[in-house]
Specification:
This protein is mostly helical. The chain is 47% helix and 0% strand. It is elongated, with a radius of gyration of 17 Å.
């Protein structure tokens, strides 16, 4: 019998209407790297982002407020 179950095919980024910008991709990479190092709490994540090369769009340092505003803007 050749009735093998297959998982439904999912497209990467299937819920977005456009590809991420270079900055958005860099931010995603920095967040993933921070999580990989155990930075799960917001303050730890902010500190890790400030150690990275990615900066808020307006420049300066990451803060809990501008990070949360950025996540709302990006729909995360």
């Amino acid at each position: 019998m050749n009735d093998t179950y297959r998982f439904p095919h999912l497209e990467e980024r299937q819920s977005i209407s456009r590809l991420p910008t270079e900055w958005e991709g860099g931010l995603a990479d920095a967040i993933e790297a921070a999580f990989a190092k155990g930075n799960w709490e917001l303050e730890d994540l902010i500190a890790a982002l400030n150690r990275s090369r990615i900066r808020p769009r307006a420049g300066g340092q990451w803060t809990p407020e501008n990070f949360q505003a950025t996540m709302r803007e990006l729909g995360a």
